[in-house]
Amino acid sequence: MVSSGALRAHLVAVRLAGTVATSREESLRSYRLFAARDPRVLMGLDPEGSWEQRDLIALMADKCGVSADPACTSGLDVIDPGRTLRGLDAFSDRIGAAAQRSAPVLLGTGHPHRLLGFYAALADALSAAGCAVLTPAHGRCVDITTRFGLRTYNLDYVRGVALVREPGAPSTGRETGAHTHSPLPVRTALAAAAEAGGPLPELVIGDHGWVCGAGQLGFEAIGLADTNDPALFVGQAEGVVSAVVPVDDGVRSVYYRPLTRYVLNRACLSQ
């Protein structure tokens, strides 16, 4: 069991929260692109409101704890660990509710190199609780526009967690896949599940386009997000995303293990 006090100390010590590695410049660039409705940062979200950069700064200050001062344009971003803990509590409660009703779930990540282990542990625990961990469209091709042009990836699952790989990449259950913000993988998976007659997930767990893409289609979605990922927090503000955990999503994978234990304990899924 990990207490909230111990977890808060861990978050700051390994820079999952507190002063994080994401720069203010990087976050402000994402806010500008979001305000311009750039698909790369919308991540599948279709916002109802008119979100200008100043609105996004205010939102991210409220949800993450970054500086609310538009004149602050350099340095490293800050995530309030208290907000991370509150996000984890809401995230855990949604997972616990899904486990109680043995709901089918879908897990996917655009950060497999860092977060695969975190999601895989959740998938294992949910499966043990009687939830069907869905793997629709396994092996399906997904065409994603990147900064290098259009690239074709294959949808794969490792320990119940969806990710995309470059064609020809090995799949032994150990290697991780490609980094992506695209909502196309989750759209492909959900469409395949519907075409097969179900079941459809009652909860989608992940990050980036997996959360925003699913939430925009009306599925309950929860996930993790960094300070340069405003789409998930806008989705939460507009009622499209159920819970978001503000946290640095690019630290060493081992540093997320205490978060896993905290979530599973609060969701009553600890082994």
Oligomer: single chain
Kindly state the mean pLDDT as a whole number?
Answer: 95
Helix proportion: 40-55%
Terminal-residue CA separation: 11 Å
Number of helices: 10
Order of helices and strands: HEHHHEHEHEEEHEHEHEH
Shape: globular
SS class: alpha/beta
Catalogue the unreliable spans: none
Report the count of strand segments: 9
Strand content: 15-25%
Give a quick account of the main beta sheet: strands, pairing sense, barrel closure: 7 strands, mixed
- Major β-sheet strand ordering: 4-5-6-3-7-8-9
Radius of gyration based on Cα positions:
17 Å
Short description:
With 271 residues, the chain is an alpha/beta fold. The relative contact order is 0.21. The longest helix has 20 residues.
Describe the protein's topology:
Elements: H1 4-13, E1 18-23, H2 24-35, H3 39-42, H4 53-63, E2 76-79, H5 81-100, E3 105-108, H6 112-128, E4 141-146, E5 149-158, E6 161-165, H7 184-195, E7 203-207, H8 208-216, E8 221-225, H9 230-237, E9 243-246, H10 257-266
Parallel strand pairs: 3-6, 3-7, 7-8, 8-9
Antiparallel strand pairs: 1-2, 4-5, 5-6
Descriptive overview:
By secondary structure, this protein is α/β, with parallel strands linked by helices. It has helices at 4-13, 24-35, 39-42, 53-63, 81-100, 112-128, 184-195, 208-216, 230-237, 257-266; strands at 18-23, 76-79, 105-108, 141-146, 149-158, 161-165, 203-207, 221-225, 243-246. The strands form 2 sheets. Strands 4-5-6-3-7-8-9 form a 7-stranded mixed sheet. Strands 1-2 form a two-stranded antiparallel ribbon. A hairpin with a 2-residue loop joins strand 4 and strand 5.
